[in-house]
């Protein structure tokens, strides 16, 4: 069965489609002719993910899932949250986002943070949400070259290496996205195809 992943990020599609069994063929937006960026301007992750899934479902009627992720920092009242991708501004780099984050946290004692992913699924015309999160803290200076985004400054609870220092295989066991995906996969495994 075809399942649309509402993203144009080829890297994400490759990574995620490897997790599905042969019952599902995961395809991206480009494969169904949707090339425009779907707006992500809701004020929470679930609404952004739902908006993207509905956008595709309304146009195709196909089963579809979409994800949205944010880094939530307690001392910043949950920022950057839904704005994680463009925290330092619309055309700024991941490094600029990190610089801004470290600046905002200067002098803060509480550096607790979490990555949270919400996946919205529309399956047989019904909507479902799956959430995954990983707790940790923001360290003072970036470390490591792996991963992407805020990985160099995020250290998961129980680790003394950042997400940019641990192997990808390890990150994929404990990450917010992996945990949300696991719930999605468990749900789909129970569905008759
Ligand atoms: P998206 O919803 O997956 O596009 O993620 C939004 C933003 O959150 C990204 O642009 C990154 O800044 C950040 N982000 C998401 N996942 C990760 C991760 O695994 N590590 C570090 N940053 C992440």
Structural class: alpha/beta
What percent of residues are in strands? 15-25%
**Count the strands?**
7
Radius of gyration: 17 Å
Number of helices: 5
List cofactors, ions and other ligands. inosinic acid
Spell the H/E element sequence: EHEHEEHEEEHH
Which overall shape is indicated by the principal axes computed on the Cα atoms? globular
Give structural notes:
There is one protein chain. The chain has 193 residues and is an alpha/beta fold. The protein has five helices and seven strands, in the order E-H-E-H-E-E-H-E-E-E-H-H. It has helices at residues 10-17, 45-60, 94-104, 168-174, 176-189; strands at residues 2-5, 25-27, 64-73, 80-81, 112-123, 126-138, 154-156. Strands 1, 2, 3, 4, 5, 6 and 7 form a seven-stranded mixed sheet that branches. Helix 1 (10-17) links the parallel strand 1 and strand 2 (25-27). The longest helix has 16 residues, at 45-60. The termini are close together. Inosinic acid binds at residues 67-71, 84-85, 94, 115, 147-151, 163, 175.
Topology (elements, then pairings):
Blueprint: E1 2-5, H1 10-17, E2 25-27, H2 45-60, E3 64-73, E4 80-81, H3 94-104, E5 112-123, E6 126-138, E7 154-156, H4 168-174, H5 176-189
Parallel strand pairs: 1-2, 1-3
Antiparallel strand pairs: 3-4, 3-5, 5-6, 6-7
Helix pairs in contact: 4-5
Inosinic acid (IMP) is lined by residues 67-71, 84-85, 94, 115, 147-151, 163, 175.
